[in-house]
Write a structure and sequence with these properties.
By secondary structure, the protein is an alpha+beta fold. The chain contains 11 helices and 12 strands. The chain folds into 2 domains: 192 residues, Ribosomal Protein S5, domain 2, CATH 3.30.230.10; 142 residues, 2-Layer Sandwich (Alpha-Beta Plaits), CATH 3.30.70.890. The strands form 2 sheets. Strands 1, 2, 3, 4, 5, 6, 7 and 12 form an 8-stranded mixed beta sheet that branches. Helix 2 packs parallel to helix 3.
């Protein structure tokens, strides 16, 4: 038997940072996002022995163990290892992972990796199978607790549920995924007007963690009130963007993207830099109503909302600036798993 899974990455439009503790615990947070048709794929092939083989195409890594008891964290694809140890398979297996996008783009790919890998192992379970909320929460806790990576919950929940969602993080740690009921015409319009591009490399993971830590509120900091006000404004703008999508007020949505970016950049001096600012200003000058970095900041992908029929001009300008435009459409399925018999596939 062969088990396969895929989980999409996401574009985050607003609310990033409000899903981080302690803000979300004190005030409640929310994030607006949609998943796109760029996926993390996982193939799980159970073995008749205890051997474990892991192949990650994107990280160009191939690891082998005599059993899962030999697996240790050493900085080498630890996220995949952590999922395996948490899922506790009683069988040996071959695990193969690949992605439609490279790592470190700011599209939430690490959350999607965890979700897709959990999904594959969960599919084969006969008992104690996890539901969607369980999978998202487990993926979050693996990154946050087991690997001590600073981050919020938005990526994992987006990857599991898919589609357009307002994800709310209540003060008592309850997460609510609220699908946005958008008319198809508005979805087509949004897909037409959005331009996604990889604009620059992000720093090492440690630098991204620093950006996320900068967004947190420290009770002993004199800047507590300033950061709280910024995050509260980002939360308000996120809810306004949600209303715009629900009503089909797309130009207003684009302008709110711009407003949200201008507010967000005040959380940390590392969120943007001269290169990112230059690209953003150039793209606005040729027809974008607004845009933003899609992840924590420091580089990766940016998404822009174009004025009507200006998309081609924005694409040309991005190419001229050395950015890589990424064609996409929206995903509505989220995490998907399936299985097939080995005899139907050539595994050699």
């Amino acid at each position: 038997m062969i088990i396969r899974s895929r989980a999409p990455v996401r574009i985050a439009y607003g609310g990033g940072g409000t899903d981080l503790a302690p803000f979300c615990k004190d005030h409640g947070g929310c994030v607006l996002s949609s998943t796109i048709n760029k996926y993390i794929y996982v193939t799980l092939v159970p073995r008749n022995d205890k051997n474990v083989n892991i192949i990650s195409v994107d990280y160009k890594r191939s690891l082998s163990f005599n059993s899962i008891s030999e697996i240790e964290f050493d900085g080498d694809i630890d996220l995949i290892k952590a999922v395996i140890l948490k899922m506790e398979p009683s069988y040996g297996f071959d695990l193969f992972l690949r992605s439609d996008i490279p790592p470190n783009t700011g599209l939430g790919s690490s959350g999607s990796v965890a979700v897709a890998t959990i999904g594959a192992f969960n599919h084969i379970r006969k008992e104690n199978r996890l539901n969607n909320y369980d999978i998202a929460e487990l993926a979050y806790h693996i990154e946050s607790n087991d690997l001590n990576n600073v981050g919020g919950r938005q990526d994992q929940y987006a990857a599991v549920f898919g589609g357009f969602n307002l994800i709310q993080f209540d003060r008592d740690s309850i997460v609510k995924v609220i699908p946005i009921n958008i008319q198809k015409d508005f979805i087509y319009e949004l897909e037409k007007h959005l331009v996604l591009a990889f604009v620059s490399d992000r720093g090492q993971s440690g630098e991204i963690q620093t950006i996320l830590v900068d967004q947190q509120i420290k009770s002993n900091s004199n800047k507590l009130s300033d950061k709280t006000k910024i995050l509260l404004e980002l939360k308000s703008l996120c809810n306004q963007m949600y209303d715009c999508l629900a009503k089909g007020e797309l130009d207003k949505f684009g302008k709110l993207l711009n407003q949200s970016w201008l507010v967000k950049r005040n959380l940390s001096e590392k969120i943007t830099n001269q290169g990112i600012d230059s690209i953003y200003n150039e793209i606005k000058s040729v027809g974008a109503l607004g845009g933003k970095i899609t992840g924590a900041g420091g580089g990766g992908c940016m998404v822009f909302f174009s004025k009507s029929n200006k998309e081609h001009i924005i694409v040309n300008k991005l190419n001229e600036l050395g950015c890589q435009v990424i064609d996409f459409s929206f995903d509505k399925d989220g995490l998907v798993t399936w299985e097939l018999e080995k005899k139907n596939r050539n595994l050699k």
